[in-house]
Amino acid sequence: MNPDRLERLLIERSRRSLSIPDFRRAAVLVAVTSGPRPELILTQRGATLPTHQGQIAFPGGKLEPGEDAMQAALREAFEEIALEPSAVRVLGLMHDVWTPQGFQVTPVLGVIAADASLEPQSGEVAALLRVPLADLRQITPRVDLRLEPPPGGRWPVGVEKPRQILHYDWQGVDIWGMTAFVIEELLALLDQV
To answer: Are 115 and 165 in contact (CB under 8 A)?
Structure first.
């Protein structure tokens, strides 16, 4: 992985941003470790959280008043896994994505040291996962077709049906939904640098 080239690619390309009425803005930190065997930092969300309980996710959450996506992603990563904002080299913003729970999410791509100190915070994070990018590259995502959103969820107006939901099955862990879509984009970006 070449962070300089990746940063340049993110600056030069046309980024897809969303503006979905009634969907709340959120951000996630797509943190990749530096070094010869880069890993993607993911979390398993706590069982008591209001949304996405137990799912595999990037550290992140809704934007607070006055925050931009980068500030929110770094703040949430600190709150969830004790990752110091100063330990992240932010490379840029990835394409916005949305969730059926009413969030439009901006993924913030960053690089951290392989030995960065990370500590899952109880209540918010049940487990911390360090997934080698090499492993993800070997997985062909499974596709689940859905005609309707999950119970209690909704889709933005104009969503084509059926909707494809991706699943990366890694060591018995199902990495799916929005997280899988962001991983798919990350791997495509890495193929270009």
So the answer is: no
Tokens representing residue 51 in the block:
């949304």
Place of tokens 């930190």: 29
CB atoms within 10 A of CB 51: 16
Of 41, 30, 28, the closest CA to residue 116 belongs to 41
Task: Give Cβ neighbours of residue 69 (< 8 Å, ≥ 6 apart).
Answer: 25, 27, 63, 93, 106, 108
Classify 53 as helix, strand or coil: coil
Question: Stretch 25-31: mean pLDDT, rounded?
Answer: 98
- CB of 161 within 8 A of CB of 88? no
Domain boundaries in the chain?
A: 3-191
Amino acid at site 114: A
Q: Please list the residues that pair with 57 across neighbouring strands.
A: 43
How confident is residue 3, by pLDDT bands cut at 50, 70 and 90? very high
Q: What is the DSSP secondary structure assignment for residue 175, as one 8-state letter?
A: E
Give the pLDDT band (50/70/90) at residue 123.
confident
What is the CATH code of the structural domain delimited by 3-191?
A: 3.90.79.10
- Taking only the tens place, the pLDDT of each residue in 75-119 is 999 999 999 999 999 999 999 999 998 999 999 999 999 999 899
**DSSP assigned state of 17:** -
